[in-house]
Amino acid sequence: MKTLPFNRSQWIAAALIPALALALMASPVASWFDQQQRLSALLIMTGLVLFATSALPEFVSALLVLALAMLLSLAPAEVVFSGLTSTACWLIVSGLVIGIAITETGLAQRISDFFTLYLDNSYTRLIAGIVFIGILLGFVMPSSVGRIVLFIPIALAIAANCGFSPGSNGHTAAGLAAAFGSHVPTFAILPANIPNMIMIGSAENIHGWSPMFGEYLLLHFPVLGLLKALLLIAVILWLYPDKPERSTPPSGQTRLEGREWRLLIIMLTTLGFWLTDSLHGISAAWIGLAAATLLLLPGIGMVSTKSFNQKVNLSSILVVAGLLGIAALINYQDISAILGGHVLDWLPLEPGQNFLNFMALALAATITGTLTTLAGIPATLTPLAGQISELTGFSLEAVIMTQVLGFSTIVFTYQSVPLMMAMPLAGISIRHAARLCLILAGLSVVLLFPLDYFWWHLLSWI
């Protein structure tokens, strides 16, 4: 008797999807939703299982979710396909073009040669160096997107200098270190990520309070920045063991060529507009798109039509569109709002139980992020801060700050646009990022959340 040609991931998905569907429909949660919302929840769950298990090619999973959402009339086309019109997709396109230009002009190789001299002595130093360079960029570039677009080609060139070919453990580890290092620990730096700024803006508008830069850094960076970075390095080294071996000695420093000068001017101009976006109000996506267009123009740019056609991957854009479509469907069907309304009923909050209250709020913020994406955490929880303060006995400021534990803990890749954008730029399957997210989130809850409680207690915040 012939068996169906399923691989292990497909069997896991085939078992998980009906099991989770039955669990959802049999639970009291199902009664909170109408029929359309239940169908949406089932489709969202199916999509997330397919992405998490890689049972299907990622772009096929994305197309399946988008097609079923339309066939079942779960939301209008402008909602389902909002990912294709979002700034995230155009950031990916511009990032891919910039990455091609940095690589083909030799500028990435020139910069990476310098860093390779200090990072290729050991694999641990290489991965740690890439992670900490990403964190340092967080202090000078207030945009994960900008950091990732500029740093990933350089990090991959460093990996190539160390003898790691695409698809090897070392290449994958370097790409993940650059993406996660530029993004995850920098949530502990006040202006470095969008959720941080949404939280501060909401807190100031609703409650009339916002933290100072140093105050925020002292409270969050030792644990959620430094210790999380060390944890990230350890997990990457464990998941992707390898050994660096310099393939060719770094080339001697020569004068920049004309193509490199043009690219450097375009990149510095782009960086200048990114750094001053609060003054001119132009989205980072459109700044990046303008730079990409210049790089493609004959006579000015450095990316040929042939290179663009060969190296800009349409499937990566479809994957991001599918994941953003899931997030848009969650919001359109009010699934997060309905669940958010029951959050306070579920939380075991009681004055005097400081550790339990702290962990409950941190976990509530983390779970909220899986339903609303990271940017939705402050939008959902900040209005409830006053009521939560009364239930816990915590200060209003402490309640608001617990959100940082939630949006710095990424459980699924779709929660974070910068991570979704980083994987196609690095040429790495999203399943690698998904696995790293889950492991890092679990370790954060078990190890870093309790450590953060004691740090807050030491600083007299709770």
Automatic annotation (TrEMBL):
Residues covered by the Citrate transporter-like domain: 48-400
Transmembrane regions: 41-72, 79-102, 122-141, 148-166, 217-240, 261-276, 282-300, 312-335, 355-379, 391-413, 433-456
Subcellular location: Membrane
GO cellular component, one term: plasma membrane
Keywords: Membrane, Transmembrane, Transmembrane helix, Transport
MF term (GO), any: phosphate transmembrane transporter activity
A Pfam family: CitMHS
InterPro entries: Cit_transptr-like_dom
Gene Ontology BP term (one): polyphosphate metabolic process
Topology in the lipid bilayer: Multi-pass membrane protein
Superkingdom of source: Bacteria
UniProt-recorded name of the protein: SLC13 family permease
